[in-house]
Structure formats: C-alpha cells, structure tokens
Amino acid sequence: MKLNQKTYKQKKGITLVALVITIVILLILAGISIAQLTGNGLFENAKLAKEKSDNAQQKENDTLSDYESKIGEYIDGTRNENANNYSTEEQIIGNWIDGKTLYQKTIDCGTLPNNTNISIPSNVENIEHLVYIGGIAFSNTSTIVKTLPSAHYDSMYSILLDFRDNNNIFIGTKYNYSSYRAYVTIRYTKKD
Fold it and tell me: pLDDT tens-digit profile of 37-67?
C-alpha cells in the first residue's frame, strides 16, 4: 500500500518550483518583447504615421472644400458679378490668362441683314486681343431666338459672325433675317 501512495503523490501535478520557473521565463520573454517594440521605435513610427494620415486627411478636406466653393461660385454666378451682366457700356470682368484686364461689352447690332452682310462698329478703342465673340438674335414676329454665330446643316440658313479691322462686328446672312434684332457680346484685352 505504501507503493501506491508514493505513485499517487508523483502524479499529483506541477510543483511550485516548476510554476515559478515558468513565470520567470514568461516575464523574461515579455521584457524582451517590450524592449524590442520600444527600442525599434515602433510606437513612435505608429504615432508619426497617424499624424501624417491626419494631416493628409485635413489637406484633402481643405482641397475638397475649396473645390466645392469654386463650383458653387460657377453655379451661383458669384465668381464674377460682371461676367453675366450684359451691358452696352464697357465693363471690367476679370483678367485674361496673360494677366491683362479683361473687358466686356454688348453691342446692339439692330436688325439682321436680308441676304447680305453688315458691319457694325464696336466703338471700342485700343483692342489688343478679342478673346470671345457671341450673340443672340430675337425674332420680332415670333418667339424664335437664334444664337450667333448660327450654323445650319444647310449653309443658306447660317448666320456668320466675325470681328474685323480690330473694331467692326461683321454679320453675314444668305437668307432674309430682317425680322431679327441682334445683340453681340465681345470680350477683349486692350493695348497698354
């Protein structure tokens, strides 16, 4: 019976010494792991990466906000108050790509010609570059409106619009458009 009791004691479990040794080994491994994580700057690198990510996100948000603002200006027409203000008086509407002042003026061209050409003075002096010419013609007898120049698949019905001699608006037709009144807008820079 004593033999059985001895065998039973040996199978009982781990000893206190084995438990202490295991805990010491785990503590050593944990210490080495923590030293490796902090010694290599892993936490600092993670903080730097988070700061860079936050800065990039803020920059992206600022850029998107700026784009939304610019799109809103185009949609609302607040980008340039005079650009959509059509007047027979010369007005400043902004700057051209070369930095020079950009002007706009709308000219009442009167009645369109009947199968002929007309030349109307713009009464603007010192035009350096014409950067835009366009217009609109309203029918006096109906609700028809034509944009100028007006292209048609049959060139007979087209309305030619041109700017000549650095001062004159040229309108040409091959059809009777004498029931239409035309307004032409020009945008230009001036010589210094």
Answer: 676 777 778 888 889 999 989 988 888 888 8
Q: Does 3 score more than 80 pLDDT?
A: no
Which run of H or of E encompasses 181? strand 180-190
Helix ranges restricted to H, 2-41: 2-10, 16-39
Nearest 5°: phi and psi at 15? -90, 170
Nearest to 16 by CA among 5, 28, 24: 24
Cα 65 to Cα 32: distance, rounded to the nearest angstrom: 48
Whether residue 102 contacts residue 83, with contact meaning beta carbons closer than 8 Å, is answered with no
- What are the angstrom distances between the C-alpha of 46 and each of 33, 39, 42, 78, 106? 17, 13, 6, 45, 62
CB 158 within 8 A of CB 174: yes
Q: Would you call 37 helix, strand, or coil by DSSP?
A: helix
H helix or E strand, kind and range, residue 133: strand 127-139
Q: Is the pTM of this model over 0.70?
A: no
Distances (CA, A) of 167 to 91, 126, 128, 159, 160: 17, 9, 10, 19, 17
90 φ/ψ angles, rounded to the nearest 5 degrees: -65, 135
The Cα 25–Cα 13 span in angstroms is 19
